[in-house]
Amino acid sequence: MYWYQYHLPLPVTDSAKIQLVVRMPDAGLPEGLVTGAIEKLMLRHEALRTVYPTDSSGKPFQLVLDEFETPVPLRRDGNDLEDITAVFHSLFFPPMDQATELPLRVGYTLKDRRVATVILVLNHISVDAASLGQIRSDLISCLDADSRDSPFSLKDQGGNTQPLAVARQQSTAWASLHERSMQHCERALSISPAAQFPHFQSIASRDPRKDFVSHYHRVALRSSNLFSALQELTTRNAGFNATNHLFTAFAVAVSALSGIPNATLRMNFSNRFREVRRSVGCFFQETLVPADLSPQLSIRQVMVDTRQSIRVATRHAQYSYLAFRDRKAKIEAHRGLSIRLGTVFNCSDRLERSLRGPASQSGAAGERPKSTMERLDCLWRDEYTDLCLRVSASGGKVHLDLIAHRSVMEQAQIEKMLSAMELFLIAWANDPDLAGSAVTDVVERFGLPTSAYGEKWAFVDNSWVDTAKLAQTLRSVEGVEAAVITVAGQPSRGRILVAHVAGNPRSEYEARAHVLAALRENVDLVCPHEFVWSERLPESGPVTAVEPAPYGDAPETADASRSAEDHDGGAGCTALATALEAVAGDGFGTMDRSYIQQGGTAVMAPAVINQVHRLGFEGPTPDDLLGPWPLRTVAELCTRRVGSENSSPTPAS
Predict the structure, then answer these.
(1) CB-CB neighbours of 482 under 10 Å
(2) pTM for this prediction
């Protein structure tokens, strides 16, 4: 996953990163001792000296470096919070090249010329959050050994003297497990909404030279009362842990906010099979958890259903991410929509263990403090996420850390959602009968934020569709004089979108292609399931209608505003066709079908885009290539790179 995401501009090509801060003893330590300990740490763990290049065909592989240079630390005098933050930002923001750069950056804050705090920034492709405790422990062991002038042994508790390298054999059993996981993903994708939040709008800067501005709001709630409530709920509701209760509350909140009665949430599962349990590496995968939040379902039934969904998802959390991207693209092409999986629930593996301790207490009478709410920074550069809840517990308090894209929620709404979830779970702990309440009653009673859609919206294929925008998109097709969108019911397909179009029936292929192209910028559209062509529009029953307009009017999307000087469609098509032939052979016979429909794959998509760049063009990303739209749409994104105006691509021989 992180290899693929690296090839997306965010707004520049960069790797996902995580950080670790380690405080030294009060007196600090000599810099040479700390640097030597970091070198030994890297010798111990292969992941910290692994890079991820691609071969001549564009496929990735891992390269473990036996010889390497220990990273030169970034130093800053002073050990206050602002000093540590400044070092972290200096390490974090420069892009990290996963193909050539070691996955570890080091910084020191200095006090009296001795290292007071060590700040590590690590490439997420090499290290997951569960690795951080092992890195901290091993670094301290190295420092302790060196401070006693004793040689550091690479022996672990099992007696191994060599770095642990475990590869799972590509056996028949593994292939069967992988296929079952893919089938689980397909089932989830077949019922997922086009977008859980149809109002999402990208605010990513198209100019990488602009200053970086976070696209997200972030608020953290810390509550000892919620800590006690979860202790009570998990004790009383045998078989249901804290994760089940929190997931239920969050799923209800997501459904209320989106106005969609079901949700497909991404969850992270650690796949630390026994051989790598104490290793440093990236051993987690995301999986999909469908949740039915029909308004009249009881909270008890929702929790039973979601517990089973989580169990199934856990069993299917080992698969190839690149194969998953291929399956997702095929389902999108079949359903005629672009699926945005932007909702994330991430619960700490240590939550259940933390809840065995006492809740935080204060005051003479042992009164628990009120929950606190804090607005925090979010440094995410991508826009893969709409809403993310991260749950943990420490010090007798539960921490709910909610991150929301700015086009999905404002900070005040985030605070309202967190407070409502907290009140709901505390009330549930105090009143067991609350589990019998319907989802809609809980939403209303506790004031969870909700969304409403106007009369020009229709709910079809588990998705809210802006039918006015869809009709406007159809109207811009040459040969279409006017368009009306209606909803019809079919026994075998349920509710479907029907496009009633006045114009030339021979324009249907172009009309479908035009709608599919619009999906790239609009998460609130799907392609009509049926087209009905006639000389006149129906006079009754439309969801929405638009007046005839001159041919060639474009829908109001980000791409529609680009001037003709920004790209040359003919040259872009030639460049993309040449890149496809150079990377994948001559199987791509037309620009009027999608990349995936013609045998394209996710693993080759970055290589195709890199080849487009070599031909002097920029603009498309691998995600653009994998969408359900025709290749012509991707070609139209190609813009000549500055300085390459005089060059032109030559079709491959």
Answers:
(1) 18
(2) 0.86
